[in-house]
Structures are given as C-alpha cells and as structure tokens.
Design brief:
Elements (H helix, E strand, L loop, with lengths): L1 E6 L9 H13 L5 E6 L5 H8 L4 E5 L5 H14 L4 E5 L1 H6 L10 E4 L3 H8 L6 E3 L18 H12 L3 E4 L2 E2 L11 H4 L10 E2 L2 H15 L3 E4 L8 H13 L5 E5 L7 H9 L2 E9 L3 H6 L6 H13 L3 E8 L6 H14 L3 E6 L37 H14 L6 H24 L2
Parallel strand pairs: 1-2, 1-3, 3-4, 4-5, 5-6, 7-10, 10-11, 11-12, 12-13, 13-14
Antiparallel strand pairs: 8-9
Bound molecules: cobalamin (B12) and iron/sulfur cluster.
C-alpha cells in the first residue's frame, strides 16, 4: 500500500507533527507492507507533489483553514490524473466544517485526532466522515520525523534565524475554553471527567527530546502545545527530569497565566527555559471575562514579574476586536503592555476561524481563508469599531511598541509597506 501525506502551502512553515504522528502510528499498526511519502507545499511545487503522489493508493491532506483551498486544488488535479486514488482530508478546517463541505475530489473526512481513524481507513473503513478517537500518549509511537523531512525545516531555521530548532508535543486537550479560539476542534472541549488533559510521561518526552536533539543536532526546541503548563506539577516534573539528565538545550513554551505559579519559574530557569509565550489577549478585566480567558490582569502581571525576576524572556500576544471591547478597554491593553514590558509583543485582530465559538457559519461561509488571518483580516468589525478602526488601533500599537514586535507583526508591516508602495507606483504610472 502506498500512502502519501500532504501539507499544502502556507507562506511560513513548521514541521507537520500531526502527519508525523499519523505516519508512525500507521507504520506500527498496519498489518502489511506500507510505503509512506510526504510533500509540503512550502518546499515542493505542485508539479512535484502531483508527480510524487499520482501512483498512491491513499492520499491524506492536512489542512488549516488558510491551506484548505490549495489542498482542494491539488486533490482535484490528482483525481483527474488517477481517479482511483482515495483522498482523505483531516486537520482543523475539516474537523470544524466536514459536514458542510461538498467537494467531489474528497472521498473521506477525518474530524478530530487522526491516528486511529487513518489506520481504520487503511483497513478499508469508508464512512464519509470518520470521527477520530482520542489516543493515549503511552500508546503512540514518537512522530515519524524522517517521513516529514524534519531536517528541511531545521536547516531552514538555522539559515533564517541561526538556530537549529524543532518542536515536540507534551499534552493534548487545552484546559481552557476561550471563545475566540479553535483549539477544541480537534481534541475536544476540556472536561475533567470526560475529556481531561492527556499529558505525556516526562521521561518518554525527554527520551524523545534527547534522541531528536542528537540526530538533528538541535540547539533549541519548543512545544506545539497551545498550553504547556497544564499544571505546575507537570512543568516542574519536566524541568526536574531535564535537569537530572543534564540536557542543556534551551527551549520555550506557551504559558497560561492562570496556571503558572512562582515556584514553576525557579524550575523553568534552572531547566534552561529561554522564553515564555503568553496569550494575554487584553488588559481589560471585563474583556478577559467575556472571552472566557480563565485568567486575570493581576495574574498576567505576576507571571511577567516572576519571569523577569528569573531572567526568562517574555513574549506577549494581544487581541483586538473582542465583542464589547471599547476604546477604554484597548487603552487598558496598552497600559498593561507598558507595565509588563515584554521583550516581544504581538497584536492581532480577532479572526473567528471555523471551530471557534465566534465563527458564524451563515455570515462567514464565503470568507477566503487563504487570504484572511488575524494579521490580514479585512472583514471583522464590532459594535464599537469598524474594521479600519481596528486596523488603526493595531497600527497605533505596533508603532508604539515597534522595537519589540513579533516576527509576524514585523513581516505584516513590511508586506503592507510593499503593497502600499506598489499601489502608489501603479497609481503614479496610471496618472502619467
Ligand atoms: C504549532 C502551530 C502552528 C505552527 C506550525 C503549523 C504547521 N503545522 O505548519 C505555525 C506557527 C507555523 C502555525 C501557523 C499557523 N497557524 Co497554527 N497552530 C499550531 C498549533 C499550536 C499546534 C499544531 C500542532 O502541531 N498540533 C499537534 C498535532 C499532533 O496535532 P494536529 O496538527 O492537529 O494533527 C492532528 C489532527 O488535526 C489530525 N490531522 C491533522 N492533519 C490530518 C490529515 C489527515 C489526512 C488526517 C486523517 C488527520 C489529520 O490528526 C493529527 C494527529 O492526531 C495549533 C493548535 C493546536 N494545539 O493544535 C495551531 C492552529 C492549528 N493554527 C492555527 C492557525 C490559524 C494558524 C495560522 C493561520 C496563523 C497565522 N496567521 O500565521 C498559520 C497557518 C499555518 C498553516 N501551515 O496552515 C489555528 C487553525 C484554525 C483553523 N480553523 O484552521 C490553530 C488551531 C490555532 C487556534 N487555536 O486557533 N501554527
Ligand atoms: S486561547 Fe489558548 S488557552 Fe484559550 S482555549 Fe485556545 S489554546 Fe487554550
């Protein structure tokens, strides 16, 4: 059986850990010969992908909302060349919208986690929409980094940023339910009893980190977990094990302010955590409550204080355009940034991706997600602000904190400046 896994194109890139997990799980559990190939639209042209996948038995596409359209274009091209290929789509976009997608080139959808569902597909299950089961980490083999050509992304990071970095997964299921976020689409809404956080054994996690660091010569790593600190105990156990093993590689993670405590920071520092990334979202207590962020302004301030005391770098993300947000709320956000003094600051406009509570299937079904994200969001407005007013606020804040902007905010500003000068040039040449 030949299986090809494809991640369509997006302008920035990270390794596809999800497809790597599917590959290793199927290789371990499929009874019979299995050849697995992988393509990634950032590195491979459409021609290379189609040539490489055309003789496959099954092709699996992994799509977020912005990459879905390119995935469909490739699927159609493949079906035209070889109608016998069985095409499966999985990932966030189809997990949220499978029931509403009417596309002849797609034979099957997987909603949720893909490992056991994909194995069922290889074994002949042909239900149009298959719901993935939650798998325990202990039963999962490590992600197949060979198949996803992890070396390419690591080499690229070294070339672009001077660090050999890749990512690991420590937990599945986020213990929060923020209204603007699509996180729950794949692993489900957190529930202490029916859908608890699934954390990996720290010893197994560090075995993987050590083995991958050695094989790929890493000097930095991070986690794909949207919330790494699912409990202070887990973080401390990880740090202690890392220190005990004398693993000195520097790393970073996403921290949720409500879970973190002061003691955690002592261990993070000792375990060479270089940077924490915190989704603060707003400096207004009212907005934090309304988006169900699960934390408070005071707690966010404490976390930044503890991290600063321990010499850990701090990255803070904020969101504009929450329902009910007023000028006074945004001013509170601005003041919070001044108080917490993050080294890196990012501010985006709310983008209700499919899968988030704020996504509205009627008014948003025609949005071109491949051109729309929280950085280039031309549609979102609220009762208090038009889309251009939100963009003005975003510009005001990015100008004000321009010395500490996140990579993504910087790129967006550069792209907008390029577009402005291109359109100015075209206006000038038109008027000649
Ligand atoms: C790390 C990460 C990134 C990284 C790398 C993403 C990548 N793979 O290229 C970076 C920083 C580059 C990134 C960028 C973006 N991201 Co991002 N990202 C994540 C994050 C935090 C983890 C992804 C991950 O690796 N998870 C772990 C693996 C194991 O899970 P998984 O990928 O979901 O895969 C499982 C299932 O989805 C399923 N599955 C996946 N693919 C397939 C395919 C088949 C055939 C099958 C059967 C099953 C299947 O099985 C897998 C194993 O169980 C998620 C949130 C999250 N916690 O998942 C957001 C998330 C995926 N990102 C999101 C978004 C919006 C973006 C950006 C648009 C942001 C931006 N403006 O730049 C871009 C788009 C990038 C892209 N290539 O599409 C949204 C997607 C929402 C949506 N409706 O699409 C998420 C859910 C964040 C959120 N909370 O809203 N992202
Ligand atoms: S925003 Fe972060 S904390 Fe909130 S649900 Fe999404 S991943 Fe979890």
């Amino acid at each position: 059986m030949k299986l090809t896994l494809i991640e369509p194109k997006y302008f920035n890139i990270w390794e596809s850990i999800g497809l790597a997990y599917i590959s290793s799980y199927c290789k371990k559990n499929y009874e019979g010969p299995l050849e697995v190939e992988y393509f990634q639209g950032y590195f491979d042209s459409d021609k290379e992908i189609i040539e490489g996948a055309r003789d496959s038995d099954v092709v699996g596409f992994s799509c977020t909302s912005p990459t879905f359209k390119h995935g469909v274009q490739l699927a159609r091209a493949l079906k035209e060349i070889n109608p016998n290929i069985h095409i499966v789509f999985g990932g966030f976009h189809v997990s949220a919208l499978a029931e509403t997608i009417d596309e002849e080139a797609i034979d099957q959808f997987v909603a949720g986690e893909g490992e056991s569902a994909f194995l069922q597909i290889l074994n002949g299950n042909r239900e149009r929409i298959l719901c993935g089961d939650a798998v325990e980490f202990d039963s999962l083999p490590w992600p197949d980094r060979e198949v996803i050509k992890n070396r390419r992304t690591i080499d690229l990071c070294e070339k672009m940023a001077g660090v050999r970095i890749t990512s690991f997964q420590a937990n599945r299921v986020c213990p929060f339910r923020c209204r603007f976020c699509a996180e729950k689409t794949v692993t489900g809404t957190f529930n202490r009893k029916t859908n608890p956080v699934r954390s990996r054994d720290v010893s197994d996690l560090l075995d993987e980190i050590e083995a991958v660091s050695k094989e790929y010569d890493l000097n930095y790593f991070k986690f794909v977990d949207a919330t790494f600190d699912t409990s202070p105990e887990y973080v401390i156990a990880f740090c202690k094990e890392k220190i005990r093993r004398k693993v000195t590689t520097r790393w970073e993670c996403m921290i949720h302010a409500s879970i973190a405590n002061r003691e955690m920071f002592k261990w993070l520092k000792e375990a060479q955590c270089n940077q924490i990334n915190v989704g603060c979202e707003s400096g207004s207590p009212k907005i934090l409550r309304e988006i169900q962020k699960g934390t408070t302004v005071e707690k966010i301030e404490s976390v930044f204080k503890w991290a600063r005391e321990h010499g850990i770098e701090r990255r803070a993300f904020f969101l504009l355009g929450m329902p009910g947000e007023t000028k006074e709320d945004i001013e509170m956000t601005e003041q919070l940034v001044e108080r917490i003094e993050p080294e890196v600051f990012g501010v985006t406009i709310l983008c209700p991706y499919p899968g988030s509570d704020l996504y509205d299937s009627e008014s948003m079904q025609d949005i071109e997600w491949e051109q729309t994200d929280e950085y280039s969001n031309d549609f979102w407005s609220t009762d208090h602000f038009t889309n251009s007013e939100l963009k003005e606020w975003q510009k005001y804040l990015t100008d004000k904190f321009k010395d500490r902007l996140s990579w993504h905010n910087r790129i967006t500003i550069e792209q907008n400046a390029d577009m402005d000068s291109a359109s100015k040039a075209s206006t000038e040449s038109n008027s000649e």
